[in-house]
Each structure stands twice: as C-alpha cells, then as structure tokens.
Design a protein that fits this description.
This protein is mostly beta strands and 145 residues long. The chain has a five-stranded parallel sheet with strand order 4-6-8-10-11, with no helix packed on it. The chain has a four-stranded parallel sheet with strand order 3-5-7-9, with no helix packed on it. The chain has one helix and eleven strands. The radius of gyration is 16 Å and the shape is globular. β1 and β2 form a beta hairpin.
C-alpha cells in the first residue's frame, strides 16, 4: 500500500501490530487493502475512506476481534461483503457506502444493527437494510418466474 505524505509517495512495507487506531482517510491510497491488516489484533478503529482503494474486502479483517469502527466508504471496492465480518462482535460503526459491492448484506451479528446509510451507493448490493432483495436469474433478465 502506498501513502502520499506531504507530497511524497511512500510505500508501506510493514505496519506495527500494536496500533489501536488507523485513519488513512483522504490520502489517495490506491490498490487493494493489504491482508496484513488482519494481523493487527489490537485495532479498534480503521478508517480507509475517501481513497482510491480497489479490489475486494479481505476476509482477514474478520480477525480483528476488537474492532469497533470500520469505514471503507468512498473507494472502488468490489465483490461481496465477506461473511467473516459477521465475527466482529464489538463493531458498532460500519460504513461501506459508495463502493462497487455486490451480493447480499450479511444477516447475522452486528450487521443487523447497521442502517441503510452504511451500504448506500453500492448498486449491486441487496438486503434488509436497503429494502432490496437479490434478484434471481429470471427476474434479472426480464423473464417471468
């Protein structure tokens, strides 16, 4: 992952595992979320919003058992929301809005407590929070049942 800091582009090779809070919002970060973030077991707060991060949400983020706040909004994330995120029992704030996520919003754990605003702006996403069900193949292509 590269970071632009005071006009200089730096490549992050290793992040200390003792961090409890990371806010890299609005830093023009590009590329995928590194799997190494899943090793930060003490992390309570992760904000990577308003960047140009692409790829899928790594399932290893489900290993962040202490995480209370996760903001990945306003990026270019695609794919589905990993079921492993249902394991984040302390998660009280989630914002995945304005990405390119698809599929069903998980229906267990803390996901039942998040509002529509956590998921808006992902046209391919569906679930109770968005009042939108997943279309089956026949509904998608316009054929009847």
């Amino acid at each position: 992952m590269s970071v632009t800091l005071k006009g200089q582009k730096l490549e992050l090779v290793k992040i200390l595992t003792i961090f409890t809070s990371i806010d890299f919002s609005g830093n023009r970060l590009e590329g995928p979320i590194p799997d190494m973030l899943g090793d930060l077991k003490a992390l309570y707060f992760l904000n990577l919003s308003h960047n140009a991060i692409s790829g899928s949400i790594p399932p290893v983020l489900g290993n962040l058992g202490q995480l209370e706040s996760l903001d990945l909004s306003w990026n270019y994330l695609n794919g589905t929301i990993p079921a492993q995120l249902e394991n984040l029992d302390f998660l009280s704030f989630l914002n995945l809005s304005n990405n390119q996520l698809v599929g069903s919003i998980p229906t267990r754990g803390q996901f039942l407590t998040f509002s529509k605003s956590s998921f808006e702006g992902n046209l391919g996403l569906c679930g109770l929070q968005l009042n939108k069900k997943l279309l089956n193949y026949n509904e998608w292509d316009g054929r009847s049942g």
